[in-house]
Specification:
By secondary structure, the chain is of the alpha/beta class. The chain folds into two domains: about 1-55 and about 120-280, Rossmann fold; about 60-120, Alpha-Beta Plaits (2-Layer Sandwich), CATH 3.30.70. The chain is built from eleven helices and eleven strands. The chain has helices at about 15-25, 45, 75, 100-105, 145-155, 170-180, 190-210, 225-230, 245-250, 255-260, 265-280; strands at about 1-5, 30-35, 50-65, 85, 90, 110-130, 130-140, 160-165, 185-190, 210-220, 235-240. A nine-stranded mixed beta sheet has the order 3-6-7-2-8-1-9-10-11, sandwiched between helices. A hairpin with a 2-residue loop joins strand 6 (about 110-130) and strand 7. Helix 5 (about 145-155) runs parallel beside helix 6. The relative contact order is 0.20.
Length: about 280
């Protein structure tokens, strides 16, 4: 099963849910936890351990000025504006390039070849006997998070139970994380902003065909609007985590709720069972 943990907005506690769920399940089975928030990964803070690192690269075009006759076909082909052909030279904007390779194919003079360019790193560690942590980190200044997300997800391919912690929001990195998942946990909070962004996240999951359930975090007991929304959209409330100074203190220390308070493992085990049901996986 491949499970995504996402949220329409930042700060709802999705990493807390992903980390505690992975920790609980790792006590009885092998779990791969994938940090897909590659612009600001933080799961390694909960699971410190030595890691092996590898570069993540993408192919980018390089123009041979001597062979190029500046016909302009490469610039006409590129839908992202990464190549501009001027009368006396060719301008390339790597931050706009999506590494499709099309420019190399349409060049009649074969004046364009591709070279690998590093955009980030992929780290793998084993902080617990039953847990593997895979994290991606986008290099500063690199605009393309999606290739790194695809790299970390590919590294986890074939593992029996994968939990992907998504970036916040509903943009391309979130879509890349949810794509191919069997189910999705959407973590929200009972605030007007939380409900607004939950609606956006629910729409993204629906468009991708990924079954979704809701976790209400930091509940103050006034969840009526969120509950009503879930009823109207046939969404299951998977669990509710109360607003608690103790939980906040545990989290702020970088500790895991299910480690400090083992009684919470029962709740996260029940959450896992509901996710398997949501994904149609036999238990």
């Amino acid at each position: 099963m491949k499970l995504a943990v996402a949220s329409g907005k930042g700060g709802t506690g999705k990493s807390m849910v992903a980390a505690n769920l992975a920790y609980t399940l790792s006590q009885t089975e092998q779990v791969t936890l994938v940090d897909c928030d590659v612009e600001e990964p933080n799961l390694h803070l909960f699971f410190p351990a030595p890691a092996t690192k590898n570069d993540v690269t993408v192919p980018v075009p390089v123009v041979d000025a001597a062979a190029c006759d500046r016909c302009g076909k490469c610039g006409e082909f590129c839908q992202y504006g990464a190549i501009t052909v001027l009368p006396n030279r060719v301008l390339f904007f790597p931050e706009l390039c999506h590494s499709c390779g099309g420019c190399t194919l349409v060049c009649p003079k074969r004046a364009i070849h591709e070279e690998l360019q590093r955009i980030g790193t992929l780290s793998v560690s084993a902080p617990l006997p039953g847990l593997t942590l895979i994290s991606g980190l986008l290099d500063t200044g690199s605009p393309h998070a999606v290739p790194i997300i695809e790299a970390v997800k590919e590294r986890a391919d074939g593992d029996p139970l994968v939990i992907c912690d998504s970036a916040p929001g509903t943009s391309c990195p979130v879509v890349a994380t949810l794509d191919g998942c069997d189910a999705c946990i959407l973590v929200t909070e009972s605030t007007p902003f939380g409900l607004h962004d939950l609606q956006l996240a629910v729409d993204v999951a629906a468009r991708l065909g990924v079954p979704a359930g809701i976790v209400i975090n930091r509940s103050d007991g006034k969840d009526e609007a969120t509950l009503r929304f879930c009823i109207d959209h046939d969404l299951e409330i998977l669990t509710t985590i109360p607003f608690s100074r103790e939980i906040a203190a545990i989290q702020s220390r970088g500790d895991l709720l299910c480690w400090v308070r083992p009684e919470w493992q029962k709740d996260f085990s029940a959450l896992a069972a509901k996710c398997r049901s949501l994904a149609g996986v036999e238990q």
